[in-house]
Amino acid sequence: MDSTTATIATDRLTQLKSFEETMGGVKGLVDSGISEVPAMFRTASPVLLESPKPPLGDSQLTIPTIDLKGGVYFKNQDSDTRRSLVDKIGEAADKWGFFQVVNHGIPLDVLEKVNEGVRGFHEQDAELKKRFYSRDHTRKMVYYSNYDLFTSQAASWRDTMCAYMAPDPPTSEDLPPICGKIMMEYKKEVMKLVELLFELLSEALGLNPKHLKDMDCSKSLVMFGHYYPPCPQPDLTLGLVKHTDFSFLSIVLQGNVGGLQVFHDDQYWLDVPRVPGALVVNVGDLLQLISNDKFRSVEHRVIANGAAEPRISVACLFSIVMKEDPRVYGPIKELITEQNPPKYRDTTIVELSSMYGSKGVNTSALHPFKI
């Protein structure tokens, strides 16, 4: 390392430490009246221009939206309706790795309240937030800015609250008063929804409807409340760098401001449109592994927020993430044939999780486990 490189590295570390010590996150910078994006957030311009947008008017390049016919309430409907849903969700998980669901059974007022609760947490008095500021994921609830703040090449323009909601749920004392109650209510609703989704995905794989549930795919839930403040120079940074999710499945509630993009067919960054009342569902790395690449965990990112109001998103990841679990996972045996041999070796959540924790967010945890 030459002296110039060493100086840059030292200056960046100083910036990161100073930023971390404020415990105010990106919102604290915005509230201070900052008019330029600090160097520690600046992303190399090729990252923002690394792939073309799709041709205008190409209707084939649109994230699928699937009507769940009332969510859990549709279960008693006819078999043709269910078969149609199985086919649609299986195709979306295979070809896209992303889809939106409407008529999913979660009341609109619950969606609105959890969105407002997350916004309220981030916009409350800074001193009230600071007691949650931590990178210690043994705690039930933490708040920080950038999970990978000290390992990424550039910090992202967002703050995050993170709570472990299942299987060992937090108490009311573990959660912030401003949003704890609605977080617990939303958890119950989203866990009912994900059980239905895993049933449909199991059937799409040709398995018993309870197969993925019996593998504990829906057992563990981590809820993230992301806050993307308005950015004075949104072309210089990102809200969240490209990444895949370390989960079996992720369910995301977008707020009033868009910005989520999906990398489709290794060719285009596609905007995920805001559909009123919809939830975004995406396949995670763990589901890609156990489905032996039948379902795809695809890269996605969030562009920096250029709107006048903050962008809010509530992401529920069905995964252990930073918690230890000795269970072994590998490609589902019923899916393996001579024509479809296993593409991954068996591994544990602990090993996968340690791999995820040691890498940058923008690289998949699956590569080291490929056969």
From TrEMBL:
The keyword rRNA processing belongs to this UniProt entry's keyword annotation: no
Domain Fe2OG dioxygenase: 219-321
Top-level taxon: Eukaryota
InterPro entries reported for this sequence: DIOX_N (IPR026992), IPNS-like_FE2OG_OXY (IPR044861), IPNS-like_sf (IPR027443), Oxoglu/Fe-dep_dioxygenase_dom (IPR005123)
Cited PROSITE patterns: FE2OG_OXY
One Pfam family hit: DIOX_N
Cited PANTHER family: 1-AMINOCYCLOPROPANE-1-CARBOXYLATE OXIDASE HOMOLOG 8, OXIDOREDUCTASE, 2OG-FE II OXYGENASE FAMILY PROTEIN
Family classification: Belongs to the iron/ascorbate-dependent oxidoreductase family.
Protein name per Swiss-Prot or TrEMBL: 1-aminocyclopropane-1-carboxylate oxidase homolog 8-like
Organism: Camelina sativa (False flax)
Gene (name only): LOC104749178
